[in-house]
Amino acid sequence: xxxxxxxxxxxxxxxMMHDLEKYRLTVYACLILLTLCFLPNGIMGVxxxxxxxxxxVRDMPAERDDDISTLPRTAGASLKVEAVSRSFGGxxxxxxxxxxxxxxxxxxxxxxxxS
Length: 115
Description:
2 domains
């Protein structure tokens, strides 16, 4: 339900601010930033707190130790990707991408569009 409310809000709020022609985008950006700061769990997070509270993943006790220093180290890469290419129609998303990840390490791979 949260994405539906969010999509409706992100569509309707700019339409309701036509009177603020010069400042519309600035006000809109400020509203989004305030939402990110004060509603980190989204609108449904607020609704969940007001209604019957269901446990979230971060509220549940950890069943394992997330400290990677306790993990055994092995030689070599646990994941190795070489020369991967991917196209979506005429859009070339990846072109000969290669990387490797060592065991017991944490990495993130973020593309130009944030995915």
